[in-house]
Amino acid sequence: MWVRHQLRLRCVSSREFTLESVEYSRYSFCAQELRPFFSPAGRGPRTRSTAQRMSLEPAVEAHQQSEVDENLRAVRAVADRIASEMGVTVTATVVPDDAEVPPGCKKVHFIRHGEGHHNVVQREWRARADWDGASEPYTLDTDPEYRFVDALLTEKGEAEARALQARTRLFTPQLLVVSPLRRATQTGLLAFEHALPPSPSRGGAALPVVAHELCHERAGRHTCDKRLDRTALAAAYPLVDYEQLDPAKAHRLVPSEADPFWGDGLAREPWEDLARCSPPPQPSP
Q: Cβ neighbours of residue 136 under 8 Å, at least 6 residues apart?
């Protein structure tokens, strides 16, 4: 999913893009961010085609709409400045699953995770008559025991991930990159379950799966977005490589044992920091 560039992929819906194979600066895309960075109005990096682009936005639950609108405004406020600092033009085109890949391009399939337990509890929390319009069920004051830490998929979420196999069986992927957060890792492993054993289409080799810290959800404040320690994740998901080295910088793609983006857990990661997508702090030698 990454070739000669790094991307921080944040909560992206199940859509396909063909990205120019160029040396990207680190950049971020999420369900809320896709529209400002790939809009017909030309904000941020330009696109090769406006066809089908209006289908990019995923369905938004009613209780999330104001939050999504606020996030869009925040990202648009920094989009032009961040894009001008990238030093390259990112070109993306929405294509069908079976589209041929032009020379010099890579087809990248972005998949958003299925329903997680944190999604259910948030929906129920906000439906309460006494909800104050701002609090969440998984902050340090409401979840001091970290009940929702690194939230897993619900049964419905697992079924959603497996349902993707009807499409993924038609793919011939070279690499599966997953967020180290468990719900995203689960989604990727279930969606490509058939490709993980050795396959004749890959010369008898299993599809390689690597975790990448820059695929991490927007960090801070929400316990559901604090990942487990790397050792625990590696034990839970032995098919995922948590030791993969970044070929450009010779450090692990999941460089630290603990979640490097959690901080003190009191504030969400600023949108500008996320858009600049600085790499996580490296552990001391």
A: 122, 125, 142, 222
